[in-house]
């Protein structure tokens, strides 16, 4: 059992995992049995059953390191997830998808065709019964119409320690600012760019000797680990949304 009280918002958060062996209520009757108590408490709640893997679609552009980390962990059966398809706006990482025998779909995007391409992507996600979308260095901004189809189910990795250096070229921004640490942030995607609820972050120290290229190289290690942790917490249903924040029972 995990619990947390937000004394400012006056909200109680609670996560419990239990074994159903010998349980008198069958799994199919759990929600009906719990609903009266939940209604009495005015609770927002969900029940998840272990054993069913979360179906994840990975969106990626040209950088492959975050995708590679997720595929490696799926191959190890580390996480309760499966990746039935990979989507991209480029064909660069197709050899990696082919190696893992995962269907790979390319949707080139430009300002003129973006609405049409997003409709095709959403149709593909629905056909494949996708639960969660992971943006593994997908260098496109999703539309509000797309995001609203998967509320709280789109995870992004941003290559900076948010809220610092939002938007593009954060490593260049960090170098020009002369920072002594760089970071990576995994967060849920909202309509506000790079401002969604944060799931996981980490940092690494740098110095005046590091070039922009050094920052990028060191940052890649952070990006892949931070995103992997966030996907794990999400897949294990350890993340509870609290407005612009998250409660992560790790």
Could you explain how this protein is built, in words?
- With 250 residues, the protein is of the alpha/beta class.
- Helix content is 32%, strand content 24%.
- It is built from 7 helices and 11 strands.
- The strands form 3 sheets. It has a 7-stranded mixed beta sheet with strand order 5-4-3-6-7-8-9. A two-stranded antiparallel ribbon has the order 1-2.
- α2 packs parallel to α7.
- The termini are close together.
- The model has no long low-confidence stretch (mean pLDDT 93).
A few lines on this structure:
The protein contains 7 helices and 11 strands.
Question: What keywords describe this structure?
Answer:
globular; seven-stranded mixed β-sheet; alpha/beta; 7 helices; two-stranded antiparallel ribbon; 250 residues; 32% helix
Topology:
Elements (H helix, E strand, L loop, with lengths): L1 E5 L4 E5 L14 H12 L12 E7 L4 H11 L5 E8 L5 H6 L4 E3 L7 H14 L4 E4 L8 H4 L6 E5 L11 H8 L3 E8 L9 E8 L6 H24 L3 E4 L2 E4 L2
Helix pairs in contact: 2-7, 6-7
What average pLDDT do the residues reach? 93
* Multimeric status of the protein: single chain
SS content category = alpha/beta
Helical stretch tally: 7
Biggest sheet features: 7 strands, mixed
End-to-end C-alpha gap: 11 Å
Judging from the principal axes of the Cα atoms, what is the shape? globular
Taken as a percent bin, the fraction of beta residues is 15-25%
Please state how the strands of the largest beta sheet are arranged side by side.
Answer: 5-4-3-6-7-8-9
Given as residue ranges, the uncertain stretches (5+ residues, pLDDT < 50) are none
What Rg, in angstroms, do the CA atoms define? Answer: 20 Å
**Could you spell the SSE succession in H and E letters?**
EEHEHEHEHEHEHEEHEE
Strands, count: 11
Q: What percentage of residues falls in helices of 4 or more residues?
A: 25-40%
């Amino acid at each position: 059992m995990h619990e947390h009280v937000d004394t400012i918002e006056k909200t109680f958060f609670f996560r419990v995992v239990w074994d159903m062996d010998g349980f008198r209520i069958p799994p199919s009757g759990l929600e009906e049995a719990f609903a009266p108590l939940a209604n009495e408490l005015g609770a927002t709640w969900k029940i998840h059953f272990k054993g069913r893997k979360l179906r994840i679609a990975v969106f990626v552009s040209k950088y492959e390191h975050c995708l590679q980390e997720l595929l490696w962990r799926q191959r190890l059966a580390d996480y309760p997830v499966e990746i039935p398809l990979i989507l991209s706006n480029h064909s660069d990482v197709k050899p990696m998808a082919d190696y893992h025998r995962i269907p790979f779909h390319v949707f080139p995007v430009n300002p003129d065709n973006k609405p049409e391409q997003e409709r095709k992507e959403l149709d593909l996600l629905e056909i494949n019964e996708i639960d969660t979308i992971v943006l593994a260095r997908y260098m496109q901004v999703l539309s509000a119409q797309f995001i609203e189809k998967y509320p709280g189910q789109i995870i992004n990795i941003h290559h900076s320690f948010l809220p610092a250096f939002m938007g593009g070229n954060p490593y260049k921004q960090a170098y020009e600012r002369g920072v002594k640490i760089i970071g990576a942030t995994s967060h849920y995607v909202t309509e506000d760019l790079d401002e969604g609820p944060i799931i996981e972050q980490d940092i690494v120290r740098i110095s005046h000797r590091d070039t922009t290229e050094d920052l990028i190289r060191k940052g890649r290690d952070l990006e892949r680990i931070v995103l992997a942790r966030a996907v794990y917490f999400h897949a294990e249903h350890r993340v509870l949304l609290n407005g612009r924040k998250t409660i992560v029972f790790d």
